């Protein structure tokens, strides 16, 4: 492998100490560094050259990373370690975190890297500047988790959890909470496996009682570890989901509802669509009233109008007895189809085609016109051009027919999309095309009297 990774795992022997070498302030051994700093002075042109060299080296590393040239990046990284001897104290203090981020990325993807190299690098970097210990420990644990080494990751997190340096700062407290939460996630994983085992056992079996007690122990530990984190403002989706699953399993519906409600509505937490999704799914499992479900999805609609739950939201609104909900149901369908990622969603087009007809038959032309007025300048080219007519007919005939019906209602019989689809001689769909023509003639908003 490159000199960079070889130096990371090389031990410092007595022979090494006798060579011309350099020790960083943290005790890391860099025999190759001497040539880089022999000429560095504390002022003048050579100090300026040193700064320019390290800056250029960093740029080369970044460029190699962007191009996924891991061996080249490792080669440049080998030289970048000289930043640890920079005369600028601010640069020296920032260097360990930069080296960790760059080095861990390189070692993660380098074709010749291995677990031993990465672990050695991580262990040394933890002690290079105490302020980075917790952060690096957490990222090291995530690397171990990625490679399926759960026990090693748990030991790593346990050591980090007990680590202290000086008075606990607010940033340290957040990191410790996060470390404890990841421990909780590992405990949840064990609990989840036990739950699967439990489902295959007879309740009268002795093994059932043993497994049940083990699960209870793990759930208690997990609750302790996750509890502090999910009360701290942030986005904690996997932790919240795990915690709520356990609360539900043990019948604490009130506790689960409280956690999810706070996560979704507490103003201290950042806006998070998933928080509303989790709350909605929980209320749905509880068979909550329709009005409650609508109120949750209404907020989700305001955050992510194209969310996959919006079609379910439309169905709920459609079943409501309130007229403003029926109006919102139309708005939701138009909102979904405003997004490029939804243009091929045949269900959305079916719903819109059907709901347009129902809305117009209910004498709510103004609702349709209100939605269409803000879209009539861009929807025709976005959805209903000749190009899309040919493309849709070729790829999905059913989709093309639904879109043609919507196009005819909104743009009239002169719409190019509508005309192209209606001209197609398709035996199976001939009756459907005739129905489309008839429906457009009856419901088109371009000329209601047609």
TrEMBL record:
Signal peptide start-end: none
InterPro entries in the cross-refs: RNA_pol_I_TAF1A/TAFI48_chr (IPR016629), SL1/TIF-IB_Component (IPR052669), TAF1A (IPR039495)
One GO cellular component term noted in the UniProt record for this chain: RNA polymerase I transcription regulator complex
Transmembrane portions of the chain: none
GO MF: DNA binding
Keywords noted in UniProt: DNA-binding, Nucleus, Transcription, Transcription regulation
UniProt-listed GO biological process terms: transcription by RNA polymerase I
Chief location of this protein within or outside the cell: nucleus
Lineage top rank: taxon: Eukaryota
Localisation: Nucleus, Nucleolus
Subunit text: Component of the transcription factor SL1/TIF-IB complex, composed of TBP and at least TAF1A, TAF1B, TAF1C and TAF1D. In the complex interacts directly with TBP, TAF1A and TAF1B. Interaction of the SL1/TIF-IB subunits with TBP excludes interaction of TBP with the transcription factor IID (TFIID) subunits.
Role: Component of the transcription factor SL1/TIF-IB complex, which is involved in the assembly of the PIC (pre-initiation complex) during RNA polymerase I-dependent transcription. The rate of PIC formation probably is primarily dependent on the rate of association of SL1/TIF-IB with the rDNA promoter. SL1/TIF-IB is involved in stabilization of nucleolar transcription factor 1/UBTF on rDNA. Formation of SL1/TIF-IB excludes the association of TBP with TFIID subunits.
Name under which the protein is recorded: TATA box-binding protein-associated factor RNA polymerase I subunit A
Organism the protein comes from: Acinonyx jubatus
Lineage start: Eukaryota, Metazoa, Chordata, Craniata, Vertebrata
């Amino acid at each position: 492998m490159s000199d960079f990774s070889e130096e990371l795992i090389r031990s410092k022997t007595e022979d090494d100490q006798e060579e011309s070498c350099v020790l960083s302030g943290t005790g890391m051994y860099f025999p190759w560094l001497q040539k880089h700093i022999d000429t560095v002075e504390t002022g003048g042109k050579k100090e300026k050259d040193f700064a320019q060299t390290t800056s250029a080296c960093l740029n080369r590393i970044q460029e190699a990373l962007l191009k996924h040239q891991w061996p080249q990046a490792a080669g440049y990284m080998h030289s970048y370690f000289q930043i640890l001897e920079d005369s600028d104290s601010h640069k020296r203090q920032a260097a360990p975190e930069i080296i960790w981020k760059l080095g861990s990325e390189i070692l993660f993807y380098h074709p010749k890297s291995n677990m031993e190299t990465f672990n050695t690098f991580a262990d040394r970097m933890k002690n290079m500047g105490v302020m980075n210990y917790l952060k690096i420990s957490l990222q090291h644990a995530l690397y171990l988790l990625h490679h399926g080494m759960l026990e090693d990751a748990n030991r790593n997190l346990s050591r980090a959890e007990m680590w202290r340096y000086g008075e606990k700062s607010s940033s340290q407290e957040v990191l410790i909470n996060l470390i404890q939460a990841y421990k909780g996630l590992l405990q949840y994983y064990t609990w989840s496996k036990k739950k699967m085992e439990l489902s295959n056992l007879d309740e009268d079996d002795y093994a059932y009682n043993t497994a049940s007690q083990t699960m209870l122990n793990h759930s208690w530990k997990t609750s302790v570890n996750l509890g502090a984190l999910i009360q701290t403002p942030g986005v904690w989706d996997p932790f919240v989901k795990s915690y709520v699953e356990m609360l539900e399993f043990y019948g604490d519906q009130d506790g689960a509802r409280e956690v999810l409600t706070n996560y979704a509505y507490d103003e201290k937490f950042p806006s998070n669509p998933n928080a509303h999704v989790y709350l909605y799914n929980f209320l749905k499992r509880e068979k909550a009233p329709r009005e409650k479900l609508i109120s949750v999805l209404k907020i989700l609609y305001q955050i992510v109008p194209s969310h996959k739950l919006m079609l379910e939201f439309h169905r709920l609104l459609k079943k409501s007895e309130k007229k403003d909900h029926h109006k919102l149901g139309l708005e939701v369908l138009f909102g979904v189809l405003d997004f490029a990622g939804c243009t091929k969603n045949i269900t959305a087009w079916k719903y819109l085609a059907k709901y347009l007809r129902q809305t117009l038959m209910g004498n709510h032309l103004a609702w349709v016109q209100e939605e269409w007025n803000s879209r009539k300048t861009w929807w025709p080219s976005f959805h209903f051009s000749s190009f899309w007519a040919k493309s849709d007919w070729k790829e999905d005939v059913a989709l093309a027919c639904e879109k043609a019906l919507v196009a005819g209602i909104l743009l009239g019989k002169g719409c190019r999309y509508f005309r192209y689809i209606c001209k197609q001689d398709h035996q199976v769909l001939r009756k459907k095309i005739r129905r489309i023509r008839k429906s457009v003639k009856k419901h088109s908003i371009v000329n209601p009297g047609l």
